[in-house]
Specification:
The protein is mainly beta. The protein has one domain (about 10-85). The chain contains no helices and eight strands. The chain has strands spanning about 10, 15, 25-30, 30-35, 40, 45-55, 65-70, 75-85. Strands 1, 3, 4, 6 and 8 form a five-stranded parallel sheet that branches. Strands 2-5-7 form a three-stranded parallel sheet, with no helix packed on it. The radius of gyration is 12 Å and the shape is globular.
Length: about 90
């Protein structure tokens, strides 16, 4: 998958690697992303590379969390090099 730089965005659900057999990567290089829940690897593999900016996974919702490898076949990776992560794991 491609990479993206987000200035300010809000999402009610960010899922990377949601489907069986998928291998998806998402990069945040600056700006801010506000989303909850954030799921990396539900039935596939989800990778998040962050080299700047802010990920805020605390939006009010029934599922306020950051989940890594959430599903039975899911594998999730979060690589934080620089920037800030706000959330519940």
């Amino acid at each position: 998958m491609g990479c993206a730089a987000i200035s300010v965005a809000r999402s009610d659900n960010l899922s990377i690697g949601a489907n069986r057999g998928t291998d998806e990567t998402y990069a945040l290089t600056g700006g801010a992303l506000h989303s909850s829940p954030v799921t990396l690897g539900y039935a596939g593999t989800g990778t998040r590379n962050q080299t700047g900016g802010v990920l805020d996974a605390t939006l009010p919702s029934s599922y306020t969390h950051l989940a890594l490898g959430y599903g039975p076949e899911g594998v999730g990776y979060y690589n934080l090099v620089d920037g800030k992560l706000i959330g519940y794991v």
